[in-house]
Amino acid sequence: MTSRPEDARKLRGEAVEIPRNQIHPLPKGQYYHFQLIGLEVWTTRGELLGQISEILTAESNDNYVVRCPKGEILIPAIDDVVKSIDLEQGRLTVEAITGLVDLNRKSKWLTG
Questions:
Q1: What would be the CATH architecture of the domain defined by 23-106?
Q2: pTM of the model
């Protein structure tokens, strides 16, 4: 089967899905968004913040929208903050650097 640009243009605006067993594996330390959505987010101090409900993509870095009991907070997907991702355990561990969680809880992103 040959692919042509005209064939690809027909799919513009459509949802394209492939079976999980056909997904190209990513290099170590890289993840597809669907793998991260739903992960529990814990601090290195053992505090459960909530679950990743959405990922906002930006030029500089992604931001994880974490749904908490009292609203939402944004966690930047940067090495200084994200310490580990364990897909088998369904867990992402973050270093709650000074003010990160409190700042988010006071921001416009907090909906609850």
A1: Roll (2.30)
A2: 0.76
